[in-house]
Amino acid sequence: MAASTGPTVECVLRELHILSSTYYRWRRAEQEPCERRRRDVELTEEIREIHAASGGIYGSPRVHAALKREDVHVGRKRVERLMREDGLAGVSPRRKGFTRRDPKATLAPDLVNRDFTAPAPNRLWVTDLTMISTSEGPLWLSAIRDAFSRRVVAWETSARADADLVLTTLEYALASREVEPGKLIHHADHGCQYTSIKLTTRLMRAGVEASMGSVGDSYDNALAENLWMLIKTEGLRGRAFTTRAEANLALFEYIDGFVRHEALYDVRG
């Protein structure tokens, strides 16, 4: 009979004050994973595929939304946990303030207070400016987004970030929607483009209430900031543009070809 080479399992368990039944239950769990653990493995594979298909861009909110569209029923917290355990994360651009305040301008009150929800279409529009770099110089992008549907109502570009750019965007938005006077809020920051006489006069004539958050505060205009994140991390990520016309075409292909026709699922969290 061979000599014993070490203590038995029972001896070790007694020394550690662990019940043998507990030990063997652990062993069975390792050999036969429970249903939840098996499902975690399956979900992680699906999450990896979605994350890879996005070019490594999607974070847990957008991965969760993609799973939901595929009729995969899973909680958002579970998606967050599985992505964290698998070392997967999304991409977010750095925020740069592109609007400057006119210290002499009269400011509109903040009618939104960071609550970017609306009971119906054309009740709350949010707007902002951002810059797209090209070899010719900056291309400025202005857009208006509806808080109810989270879709882009109108957008416009220009080589100049002036009041004419934001006014043109507003004109396109008003022409494309049936706006009831006194029912719509137009929310922007304190940038001089939005406090200009041209824009404030047009808002007043259309019966639209002006609202303003603070300059450079992404939380005060989070819905517009989220749009820039989508455009820059999905539509334009990794692309270098020689001309403004080239950048403008890329924006058209993404905003009109994807954002307007794809449901802009909620990624607020």
TrEMBL record:
Q: Gene3D superfamilies in the record, alphabetically?
A: Ribonuclease H-like superfamily/Ribonuclease H
For the Integrase catalytic domain, which residue ranges apply? 117-269
User: Which Pfam families does the record match to this protein?
Assistant: HTH_21 (PF13276), rve (PF00665)
Signal sequence, renumbered to the chain = none
Function recorded in the entry: Involved in the transposition of the insertion sequence.
**NCBIfam families from the entry?**
transpos_IS3 (NF033516)
The protein, known as? IS3 family transposase
Q: Name the species this protein comes from.
A: Streptomyces aureus
